[in-house]
Design goal:
- The complex is a heterodimer.
- Chain A contains no helices and 11 strands.
- Chain A is an all-beta fold.
- In chain A, the strands form 2 sheets. In chain A, strands 2, 4, 5, 9, 10 and 11 form a 6-stranded mixed β-sheet that branches.
- Chain A is globular and about 40 Å long.
- In chain B, strands 2, 4, 5, 6, 9, 10 and 11 form a 7-stranded mixed β-sheet that branches. A 4-stranded antiparallel β-sheet of chain B has the order 1-3-8-7, with no helix packed on it.
- Chain B has no helices and 11 strands.
- Classes of the chains: A mainly beta, B mainly beta.
- Chains A and B meet through strand 4, strand 5 and strand 10 of A and strand 4, strand 5, strand 9 and strand 10 of B.
């Protein structure tokens, strides 16, 4: 059974710092990995999707990498801003169209 | 930008009552999903739906749960007899082809009292 773990569970940084969020998964037979942002009491916003054949994806100040063989992904946030404060979730999918398995999230607070 | 719409945003129901949670997926999407998140816990998969039938379901999705796409636009989750432990945020999601990721709705917070 796939298990997804995110470290750290919570992170507080001053504005402007570059930071790395980690995600690990136990079964490397994944189809894709997706990073989401969740604001308190809200839905999930997709940030980046990495297919299993890809190594990384970038969107603005966000960069996600995937090392499938070691079961790891990282989300790099450059020049963090208070508006980045949210919970960041990673999720892996075993096959196209099938269920996602989520990690527990990293709760990020960026202080002005 | 296209959205997945969920209604209601918050529902309170008494234990034992039936509830129907409604979702309007993105119009050209073919895969539909329900997930739930109990407060403080991980987001958990419930069920996926493709080509008018359930394609996968989790252990959580027992006989008390059912899904339906009644009219080609709505996608509903029914809980027949709610329990206290069904209290959670329920998310609907859709995907165009299951490859390019998901779009989630903003969720329905279900409170069973």
């Amino acid at each position: 059974k796939q298990e997804v773990t995110q470290i750290p569970a919570a992170l507080s940084v001053p504005e402007g710092e570059n930071l790395v969020l980690n995600c690990s998964f136990t079964d490397s037979a994944i189809y894709n990995l997706q990073w989401f942002r969740q604001d308190p009491g809200k839905g999930l916003t997709s940030l980046l999707l990495i297919q299993s054949s890809q190594r990384e994806q970038t969107s603005g100040r966000l960069n996600a990498s995937l090392d499938k063989s070691s079961g790891r992904s990282t989300l790099y946030i450059a020049a963090s801003q208070p508006g980045d404060s949210a919970t960041y979730l990673c999720a892996v999918g075993p096959n196209a169209g099938n269920m996602l398995t989520f990690g527990g999230g990293t709760r990020l607070m960026v202080k002005p | 930008e296209p959205e997945v719409t969920q209604t209601p945003s918050h529902q309170v129901t008494q234990m034992g009552q039936e509830v129907i949670l409604r979702c309007v997926p993105i119009s050209n999407h073919l895969y539909f999903y329900w997930y739930r998140q109990i407060l403080g816990q991980k987001v958990e998969f419930l069920v996926s739906f493709y080509n008018n039938e359930i394609s996968e379901k989790s252990e959580i999705f027992d006989d008390q749960f059912s899904v339906e796409r009644p009219d080609g636009s709505n996608f509903t989750l029914k809980i027949r007899s709610t329990k206290l432990e069904d209290s959670a945020m329920y998310f609907c999601a859709s995907s165009r082809n299951g490859i390019y990721g998901y779009t989630f709705g903003s969720g329905t917070r279900l409170t069973v009292v």
